[in-house]
Request: fold
Amino acid sequence: MTSQENINNILTNLTNVLQTLKDCEMLTLNEIKQIEQLKIEKAALKIQLQELNKELDEKKLLVGNMEMKRRKFLSSIEAEEEALVNKLQSIRSLAENWTNPVIKEEEPIVEVEIAEEERKRISVAPKVQPEPAVNNKIAPKKSSSVKGAPVSDLNKAIGLNDRLLFIKELFKGNSDSFAEMLKHLNKLTSMEEAQQHIELTIPHWDSKSETARLFLAIISRRYL
Reply:
């Protein structure tokens, strides 16, 4: 092989090497571009991740506040329920341990018992001219609720002690029946209507008992 051929071969090889280097450079540049693009995407993803973490923290805080409010609400409900239970137990205990109030000597004047007592007096008295009555009215049974003055609302006229007494002895412990009775009696216009309604509604009661007469005495004030 001549020197010229050697030179040509060397040049050819160099050309191939240069082409290979160019190809490698091109590949390297492409890889560099890809790496740069990946860096950009990574940075963008990092920003998105930070935003998501921030949003997640805000939601956690919101959920925590809601949970705190829920617990406070449940705590207040439980406290109210416990207070109502204690109040109910106190009322039941008071009703179970109830005893009739002590009768005082001085009593207000009520006209409920006048007719019956007057009829008895007239039936046994001789047929003579009646003398002027000093006091035709009979004192009622003792009660803090009976004042003798007219009332516009029976619910306000009956005190707690008398209310418990009436519910226990006249309404067999049924407070709803007692409340419904007062509601209806407040709408009536005369004692006769009231007595008829009472006899139809609670026929089991003894109208001559002390408690029944006390109840009628208070009811009569509604129609004065």
